[in-house]
Amino acid sequence: MIIALSLGVTATATTSIAATTDPEQSRLQMIDFIQAKYPNIKHEEFINGAYIFSPDKFIQWEEAAEALPPYLDFIDASSLCWL
Q1: Are 58 and 52 within 8 A, CB to CB?
Q2: Which of 40, 39, 60 is nearest to 51 (CA)?
Q3: What is the DSSP letter of 46?
């Protein structure tokens, strides 16, 4: 019975927290947290993921993307449609 009561309290607490959570507010809090943690990195650079922390790795990633663009398979597949 104690387990059932504790599960009920947990479910109720979780439900009330979820009901008051605003996704936009959570997103803005996350942005503020990350900007405070990494103040020297511009917000626009975070699109590059972990590569923003290593300039050498970022250059390697750019060169690999230029050598093997990720969309070549789609171009090949679409050219078969027009044969």
Answers
A1: yes
A2: 60
A3: G
Task: Quote the pTM value.
Answer: 0.48
End-to-end CA distance of the chain: 70
Residue 37 to residues 33, 42, 53, 54: CA-CA distances in angstroms?
Answer: 6, 12, 13, 16
Question: Hey, where are the domains in the chain?
Answer: 22-81
What tens digit of pLDDT does each residue of 1-36 get? 556 555 555 555 565 666 678 999 999 999 999 999
DSSP annotation of 32: H
Any idea what DSSP says for residue 42? -
Q: Which two tokens stand for residue 51?
A: 């590569």
Q: What pLDDT was estimated at residue 5?
A: 52
For 38-57, how does the pLDDT look when each residue is reduced to its tens digit (9 = 90+)?
999 998 998 888 999 999 99
Cα–Cα distance for residue pair 7/3, rounded to 1 Å: 6
